[in-house]
Amino acid sequence: MNRQLSYVENRLVVGIKMANQRIFxxxxxxxxxxxxxxTIVSGQVVGDKFYIAHVGDxxxxxxxxxxxxxxxxxxxxxxxxxxxxxxxxxxxxxxxPHKNVITRALGMRETVQVDVLAHDIQDQDVFLLCSDGLSxxxxxxxxxxxxxxSADLELAVSSLVEAANEAGGTxxxxxxxxxxxx
Length: 182
Known about the structure:
Elements: H1 7-29, E1 40-46, E2 49-55, E3 59-64, E4 67-70, H2 77-84, H3 90-95, E5 115-120, E6 126-130, H4 132-135, H5 140-148, H6 153-166, E7 175-179
Antiparallel strand pairs: 1-2, 2-5, 3-4, 3-6, 6-7
């Protein structure tokens, strides 16, 4: 147990690490599962904070007021490259040949490093957790537009999945949305 993390953060991290061990050991026991892995993003509301834990390129966004913000950092070669070259243009990022290569995933090794964050909640914040099947197919501005333009979150989630599939649907599309209210 990491003593620098809160109880909530430790629970999120330990849960993800346990899932990682199960996936890893399943892949070690059966050759048909060799190389099996996945990414994860999870969240928990406690009081006036939203806790996020993630591994890989599944993301959490926050929609607040008129803006959308990616709350997680993808564990990918592109993000590592952007750290090394901070002035990388949008065009260079789009053309980066290995942008879909992830550097962390569940099941790849016996242990995994989990990033965990805590953010203050404001009334009407929407937290959107999704796989790269959504974020890789739809621009952030379009995600916000579909969420803001929907009558409710259930309809927004359906619209997002539909839009990702219409844009090519090259990967699984998983979306969860949570709106915070007093």
